[in-house]
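Quick one, tokens below:
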């Protein structure tokens, strides 16, 4: 695949839920947001989770954040809530994008939200149903079998689709460090990692930094 005209992609690799790394991510996003006018933050979460974050960004309460914390985030790490609160306070026009297959519990809540707002049957509603079915293929609890290659393939497809909808806008992305390697390694079965595939498609527009070494 050849290089396409597009915005810049700033990818930062992490070890999940490490407080020092999250503090650095806040600094990086603050800089991109205020000095380069970036507004789009891609995360290693499912679309429904980030859609709820986008609703919460315009809410006067933390009710949605608390639900996400218990169901879709990591409730053993309370500083995760402060991470998102800081983004809401310091970078209030942030728009989140999630690119992993749907996580069934949060997808079900988002489907209910759409139904409550008379959007059942909408394109978004059908999209969430599809994402949730893909998510069910991954979780044994919901009848699936974990498959790293299947997850990576979906994450790459979702990333490219959402990024290309932005028509040249630049974005920042936060993903596990293994997902942004530049080599076509077989860590995810026979599927090249996100970073490698993005570099193949978008060329010099893709920038990488692994933050896992700062802890």
């Amino acid at each position: 695949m050849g290089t396409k005209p597009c915005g810049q992609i700033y990818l930062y690799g992490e070890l999940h839920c490490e407080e020092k790394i999250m503090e650095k991510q806040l600094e990086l996003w603050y800089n991109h947001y205020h000095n380069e006018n970036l507004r789009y933050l891609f995360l290693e979460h499912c679309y429904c989770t980030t859609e709820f974050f986008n609703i919460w960004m315009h809410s006067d309460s933390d009710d949605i954040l608390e639900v996400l914390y218990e169901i879709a985030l990591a409730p053993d790490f309370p500083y995760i809530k402060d991470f998102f609160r800081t983004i809401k306070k310091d970078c209030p026009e942030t728009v989140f994008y999630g690119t992993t297959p749907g996580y069934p519990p949060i997808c079900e809540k988002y489907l209910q939200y759409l139904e409550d707002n008379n959007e059942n049957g909408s394109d978004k509603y059908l999209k969430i149903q599809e994402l949730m079915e893909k998510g069910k293929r991954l979780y044994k609890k919901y009848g699936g079998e974990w498959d790293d290659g299947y997850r990576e393939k979906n994450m790459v497809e979702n990333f490219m689709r959402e990024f290309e909808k932005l028509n040249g806008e630049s974005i920042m992305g936060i993903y596990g460090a293994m997902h942004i390697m530049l080599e076509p390694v077989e860590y995810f079965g026979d599927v090249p990692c996100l970073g490698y595939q993005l570099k193949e498609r978008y060329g010099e527009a893709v920038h990488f930094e692994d933050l896992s070494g700062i802890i």
